[in-house]
Amino acid sequence: MKLNIGVLAGDGIGPEIVAQAQKVLDAVATKYNHEIVYTPAIVGACAIDEVGDPYPEATHEVCMNSDAVLFGAIGDPKFDNDPSAKVRPEQGLLAMRKKLGLYANIRPVATFPSLLDKSPLRLDIVEGSDLVVVRELTGGIYFGEKGRSEDLTKAFDTCTYTTEEIERILKLAFSYADKRDKRLTVVDKANVLATSRLWRQVAQSMEADHKDIEVDYMFVDNAAMQLIQWPKKFDVIVTENMFGDIISDEASVITGSLGLLPSASVGVHTSVFEPIHGSYPQAAGKDIANPVATVLSAAMLLESLDLLEEAALVREAVNKSLEEGVVTEDINKEKAYKTSEVGDWLAKYIAG
Ligand code: IPM
Ligand code: MG
After folding, report:
1. Separation of 74 CA from ligand 1 center, angstroms?
2. What is the pTM of this model?
3. Measured in angstroms, how far is the CA atom of residue 244 from the centroid of ligand 2?
4. What residue numbers bound the domain in which 198 lies?
């Protein structure tokens, strides 16, 4: 198979971790006789520095013309500390999501048997946790009307959802629940928000078509509490953009390191695969960041192209590396491997 993969490494540790995922993909390609053509493109702070736009048209073209996109991370402290900055790296990410129609962000959270002791939560709470957060990604308060009053003393952000936007994400969430343990939790704030009441109404109207799925509804504050108290209670969680942003970071704590969790953003055009962590600028260029989240994102990429055996081998390689202690410093400070060493080890394992 010939694969065209857009590579948007981005800022901070982005280039280093993406390079490891490419090593892994190359090893897979060699073993299974695939041909991978990578097309790099700029995004985020580095794109602002280069062309003044965090998601330039040329980058969008690359994404549109690829079979899948591998994404690193974006963000730079020089923008975080300057609230008056007109253009920000994050706008590039939001523009990419909107223009590619990436309305769903899929974040699987499962524990790794060899790393159970890394979770700050008690072993009996986390052991066996296996859930997926399906976050709506192109609507809600992120994209609603926003602004400042003329005298600058008032600001507003609006949360808007249409029935159609809610239906398509719920449909996807139901299909995930169907493939898994057939339990779906709709997380909202229907006791306060009009948009949440619409979400609940739409979800309830879809229940009849999915009789074998057990659906429950939970207010987001309660869900935030239950998620770390009884993570095993959850199978598929579906929620709107902002709640999903928060809940999915919280869910990552279950596994013990943010450096382990992959994600897929899917929708109308090309899907994008990226680690859930950020650009970790303090570690940039030091060869210490954990590449596993990006490597597992590459596994999700392979799955999305129906290369299931290939993806399974990548997952096997990652599990083996964790078991054998071939890990970066976030997992083991005493005996830490470099980012590039982990990538080399994984590629070698795959090559066999
Ligand atoms: C994420 C990130 C982004 C978001 C930021 C960087 C804009 O936190 O992908 O979860 O809030 O969606
Ligand atoms: Mg986030």
Report:
1. 9
2. 0.94
3. 8
4. 120-254
